[in-house]
Amino acid sequence: MNMTSITAAGISLPHPVIILGLDDSGKAHASFFPATDAQPASRAASLMGMFSLKADSDAVRSLLPKLPKGKLFDSGKAFVPFVKQDLYKQIAAHLPEADRAKAEEVRVAPAEVSQQGHAATPSNVPDDWSKIVVGSLLLATEDPLEGWFEATVIELKPDSVLRLQWRHYLDLPPFNRKLEDVALLHPSIKL
């Protein structure tokens, strides 16, 4: 059976999906998910207050190679890396008209909560490896090709292992990284 007969029979094949949105800092996030993950990716976008866009036109499909591949989690949410603002705007231009303005709005994330249960800001941005303590803000990655993201140290473990929590993805579980697998933020960073 060829593609023409499938389309003629009224069966539509899934398309890759792009998830996009701004975080609470106004930083642009976007990634693509293959057609096999189209439905869970669209659900993840909804759960995360982001937008999903089917790559069902040549114009949208031409943007896919410019995007990092997203990652779905068992929680039903997704990891959607940062992208440049101009690429984000190119993608957002393909959203339905009603969603375009919303896609430019900064998404409000829940306040960070410390172990004592109140809103917390990072207690420090160390300028030296020896100054890393619980509450330090560092950079971590799932894969260097996907980018580096802010993470807060929540526990210092033996053998130079750090227990971290993503700063802007509090619904994702904490994770461990060896000290040599994290990065310090530039000392001039303003929080």
What best-fitting shape do the alpha-carbon axes yield? Answer: elongated
Multimerization status: single chain
Tell me roughly what share of residues is in helical segments: 10-25%
Low-confidence stretches are: 1-8, 108-121
Mean model confidence by pLDDT: 80
Strand content: 15-25%
Give an account of the 3D structure.
This protein is of the alpha+beta class and 191 residues long. The chain has helices at residues 3-8, 38-47, 58-61, 85-92, 97-103; strands spanning 17-22, 28-33, 51-54, 71-72, 78-79, 137-140, 149-157, 161-166, 175-178. A four-stranded antiparallel beta sheet has the order 6-7-8-9, with no helix packed on it. The radius of gyration is 19 Å and the shape is elongated. It starts with a helix and ends in a 13-residue tail after the last strand. Residues 1-8 and 108-121 have low confidence and may be disordered.
Topology:
Layout (H helix, E strand, L loop, with lengths): L2 H6 L8 E6 L5 E6 L4 H10 L3 E4 L3 H4 L9 E2 L5 E2 L5 H8 L4 H7 L33 E4 L8 E9 L3 E6 L8 E4 L13
Antiparallel strand pairs: 1-2, 1-3, 4-5, 6-7, 7-8, 8-9
For the structure shown, list the relevant keywords.
3-stranded antiparallel β-sheet, 191 residues, alpha+beta
Q: What is shown here, in short?
A:
The protein has 191 residues and is of the alpha+beta class. Helices cover 18% and strands 23% of the residues.
